Amino acid sequence: MEKELETITAGDVGVLTLEPELKRVRVLRTTLQGVIVDTEYNKQARELRHLVEYTDHNGRAQSRWFNESQLVEVKEDGQA
Question: What is the largest distance, in Å, between two alpha-carbon atoms of the chain?
Fold first, then answer.
């Protein structure tokens, strides 16, 4: 299966080309876990930010943007 590449324009910084990935991540200082479904450059914070899809404590699907520094990747065994 061939992956499509996603191009992100980062203002004066240049252009970043990323392979879309469905990385499982955990938000720091919470138990919230989800999957990264989109990425863009946060010019104000000067770092990447990721759109994370997750299920809330009521079982409803949610999505929210987090700066990369707020996330930690979750390994296959569910550990950070």
Answer: 42
